């Protein structure tokens, strides 16, 4: 009996360590330890605050991406939708229109893109990969047509409000950071304490079984894409507080970074399994990795390469985990 426990304990410990978000948190701490040894400035309060500030946009996009992936879908257009929001708000405000109205219009426009994606995926049952890949091209082209190739300076106080800073000790904290953390808390509550959240997990596990128990699968999937796009619109507002200009060429790696954050945070690409707090940890892993590699002087192209490797490794581990459970 004692021998059996001795043999099982290491496996149980490994399973616990691999469970999201514990495993992701351990990876984050390992990266922090490595970069704190390699550089003298990584653990400085100002630099740690910078890591979180740099993670605000990707972290917000990753929230919407998490909801979509929990339904076994994927959204390749989230970054381009956010850029569309920044361009619409930035251009209209520079043309002299009311800032609040322009911001609301930009968020509504982003939400409408989600409505289109959700309708195609849920009503016509088109593959999410194809739908969002097509929307990526359409939204990117529309954004460049609206901007006419130009960038628009963010000078309005409301648009730049999320970049305002409150000093806490030696660390600057932006309103955008507070909003992002608040969104994570809100989505955690929705996913764990409401019927809508539990139904999202059920649909990701098995849409057929979800229909049998009376869950309106089509409407729920549509609502997920609409809500996710609304969050991308909020991400556009947070981006306007971070960047000096609304630029159609901005956030080019946001799609990959947000998907990376979701996957290495422990959410399964096959749907039905994952944690929103794991996504936050995954976002910080991406932020720490890019910040740390920059501090040690690694070329940005290598950062993209490492990020891609992380995605493949996380998906491979998820697949292995599924095979072991079968």
- Please describe the biggest sheet, giving its number of strands, its sense, and whether it closes into a barrel: 2 strands, antiparallel
Question: SS-based structural class?
Answer: mainly alpha
What is the overall silhouette?
A: globular
Question: For the CA atoms, what is the radius of gyration?
Answer: 20 Å
Lateral strand order in the biggest sheet:
1-4
Helix/strand order, N-terminal first = HHHHHHEEEHHHHEHHH
- The proportion of residues in beta strands is under 5%
* Mean pLDDT value: 89
Give helix % range. Answer: over 70%
Q: Distance N terminus to C terminus?
A: 27 Å
Number of strands: 4
Low-confidence stretches are 1-6
Overview of this protein structure:
The structure is a single chain. The chain has 326 residues and is mostly helical. Strand 2 and strand 3 form a beta hairpin. The chain is globular and about 60 Å long. The protein contains 13 helices and four strands. The strands form two sheets. Strands 1-4 form a two-stranded antiparallel ribbon. It has a two-stranded antiparallel sheet with strand order 2-3. Helix 2 runs parallel beside helix 12. The longest helix has 26 residues.
